[in-house]
Amino acid sequence: MTDLPPTSDDIAAVLAALADNAAEDGCYGFQDACLLIGEALAALPAEGLTSELQALLVGLPQVYKDYRLGDRLSIAGIFDILQHPVLQVILADDELLLLAEQLNTDMTALSDGIEIIADAPDEPALADTPEKVVISPNPVLSKASLELVALLDTQARYISGLIDALPLGQTDALAADLENIGEELERYISAANMAGFTGLALVCEQVLANIERFHANIGVFSAEHQVLLQTWISETIAYLAAVSDSQAGLPLLAILGADSWLLPVTLEDAGLIMAHFKATDANLHEPEPEIRKQTATLNDIDLTLPEDVNPELLDILLHELPLQIQEFSSAIQRLQTGGSLADLEIAQRVAHTVKGAANTVGIKGIAELTHQLEDILLAFASAQQLPGYALLSVLMDAADCLAVMGESLTGFSPPPEDALLVLQSVLDWANQIEQVGVAALLEPNDQVGSIPPEPALPNTDEPIAASSSVRVASAQLDDLFKLADENVILNSQANERLRRIRAQLRAMEAQIELLRQLGDELEQLVDLKDLTGQASGKGQADFDALEMDQYNELHTASRRMVEAAFDAREISKDASKELEAMNEVLEDQQRIGNETQAVMMQTRLLPVSSIAQRLQRSLRQTCRLTQKQCDLVLTGDHLMVNGDTLNSLLDPLMHLLRNAVDHGIETAEQRLAAGKNPHGTLALHFELDGNHIRVRVQDDGRGLDFAAIRDTAIRRGLLDSGQNLSDKDLARYILRPNFSTRTVATQTSGRGVGMDAVHYQVVGLGGSLALDSVPGLGLSVDLRVPLPMSRVHALLTQVGTYKVAIANKGVTQILFAGAATILDDDQGQFVLLADERYEAVPLSRLLRIPERRKRELYYRTVLLVQHDEQTTAVLIDAITDSLDIVIKSLGQYVNKIPGFAGAAIMGDGTVAAVVDLPELLRRQYADAVTYTELAEEWLPETRLPTVLLVDDSLSQRRALEQLLQDAGFAVRTARDGIEATEQLADFKPDIVLTDLEMPRMNGIELTAHIRTRENLKTLPVIMITSRTTQAHRQLALEAGIDFYLVKPVQEDDLLGKIQGLLATATP
After folding, report:
1. Whether pLDDT at 979 is above 60
2. 765 and 810: one domain?
3. Domain shared by 1025 and 991, yes or no
4. Are 981 and 1050 within one domain?
5. In which element (H, E) is residue 617 found?
6. Which pick of 166, 341, 418, 799 has the fewest CB atoms within 10 Å?
7. Which of 256, 281, 306 is the C-terminal boundary of a domain?
8. What total of structural domains would you count in the chain?
9. Which strand (E) or helix (H) includes residue 96?
10. What local confidence, expressed as pLDDT, does residue 463 receive?
């Protein structure tokens, strides 16, 4: 393996083999490093592999050998390769620190294992005394840890005496003594848990279960069982003597697995107990003090955002930062003008919050400055002293620097030029305080003595409901402004056209009035002509002068009338031209309106790739919990989808991934035996289908067990034993509430969320879910969800006396009279089309409108509507119009009506109901189809484990809330201890995660409150804080927390501790 050919393919193969070997050895940090190098090497062009880089890569196997032997210099060799400029492995500073910590942790564990194997004496006999059992040298423990170990050791020796005195052969006395040992053991378990020895407590719980079983079956207890108990208590005492060793719990686990126990420990429980032993070991030692740097560097003031920054957390930080900096500056200003310790505490708390948020997002410059500021302020707060004028001046400069940093992040100003000088000044003060203390730095004029803290004023402000916000790119805003300008221009054009049309109409009215007057004149002339003709007599053959004048006037009137008619016709033509021009303007305006709406809708679109990281993380966590190997293949992630729809799909998709790994993907051994790749594959494919988004989740696992589904359905009375159903129909049974073929819940499957909840969420979005499974080859779940649209194309029809707009959602085909045959039989109406038979239902029946038609009249239009994997024919009288409509909400006083999308205002001002045919049909079939449940008819009966998350930092709450929700927990949040106690009065969560420092009530006070409440005292509590001192840890342990974690927490470590506590929690 050391003589590698100089080709990229061969090096990649060796990297893959090294990663596998590292995983088998438990060197997960080295495995991650190999995988990162392999990915970067794969992206490197063939000519990019330099001889220098090739030499480093060829020597990597030797580096791994040195690493396994405990050579710390080998870690530097790994980072030389990771940070090689040719490879371009992109890792943030915090990620590099986490990787280095993992490499060191793995090396330590590996070295301990080698030392135990090489140096441990032969295993002692069961009767050997505890003093002879020495597993590893005992490093120096903290004073508090030594006191706790001594107490537990004393109690263990007392229990040992009780076991030695058991009266074998005396049934009644033996039962009484076993009961007494059980009671002592319960107190011992409680003490071990309070002291933080959860691994030891779990071992004792296993022994207690056996003692209770012995007590119930007293006749089976023998001398062999007494020796077993003696061996167990001896190994317990030996464990306490070498508790700091990470392997000290192994002998206890070995004893619990003995066949002589009535209830031997299972392999799964043994793994859980060992994890708690390791956690106990990690919490025993005094944390190494942080070495404060002396000189500020440019890297310490870097404001560059990480490439994988979480956009949501960044938005929260940018929203909170100006307010927090303003609060910090105000507190410092008040201190400059003679403030109090309350102002000092406010400044310290704000610095702590900003530091945590900046670390979460990954902005090193702000995190480093606020970290040093917090230490200074905390030192003065602990000494009950106010800073002097010189220090306050530096703190004010730091506040101004923070403000400019915040403006730089939002693009309003460049980064502060004096940031390096400000940080150096802050560092100088922090180092002086650390070296000589606060009192030595106070000037004579600055001494204020020991000032009692002022009582904090109660916060009477009601919580302000957060309004949702959307970030819009400046280019999209420019497009919106341009379209708005065009809209204004078109409006002015339309107004001008309307002015001209009104003038034309006034001219037409004048012409019509003229025609009326000419008609009157002509009528008078005709009457006069009749009178003149009668008076002249028949004998006169010639016209006189008066008669000729009358003729001329009649002729003139007729000519004027003809001209007026001609003018009216021309005016009408001009008006028609203006109307045509007006119509073009209105069409342009409608086009601009449509484009404006489309651009505005784009501001709410997100790429599918924005949720890829959370999906990948959820899959990795599930694989770790189930000890399976699976890869996620994502296609169609470039699609832009409505953000609300995408976020609504996230929970169902993550559960489908977890379900596929837990139920579908086999273990590596099972896959190899079946001729499959040991790595399973989960494929997620996104595509747009008209006004819908389709997501296909496909795995290559074992598929659905149709026989088990059928047996479960029969056992629950959902299916008759003689009833035959297709595989497709059987698959639908897993969508029923609480339907599961698994008899034993695991940490993953036991989260309380089933396929019924996924179906419920998808149906609630107006979508559908289809299942397709081939035994042995995998399961495919096809989700189809409509995208929200305020403007849709609709068909207008009349149902009874009501005008109805039918949204085009789900309508696949429109058939008019003669194109299809409508028939009746015993089963109802159906439509026959091209040898296909579709069940038919009138729209009036779907809308619950009484039928008032005559029987001899037939429906003239048929709509084929697709819903829930089937097609139904909807019968209507006629389509009166087809147009685009804008859907309006029915208002806050009208609840959601199933089957109705809203209402639309027609062009004539009337209002029409907008119906959703797929949803109407789904409701129609709910009564007839026994195995399909509607979202409106039921709610999932299962319940997620609930976590109460208490932290005063919004960004910290959001980050942990997202992690826990992705892992399958329901999360409720509180801003401080007071708000948490108010919530605890109404509900009891399964576990509490709390920060240490918070306004109004801190985490220690909250824990003490929980432990004094009868209904809450057994509630598990984990404290997550940035405080690393033993004093803080001891205060928290005395208050009654179960685990004390230091930020930033390892996600897998946190989830593992939560699962362990939930598994052992008292209901």
Report:
1. yes
2. no
3. yes
4. yes
5. helix 612-626
6. 418
7. 281
8. 7
9. helix 93-119
10. 40
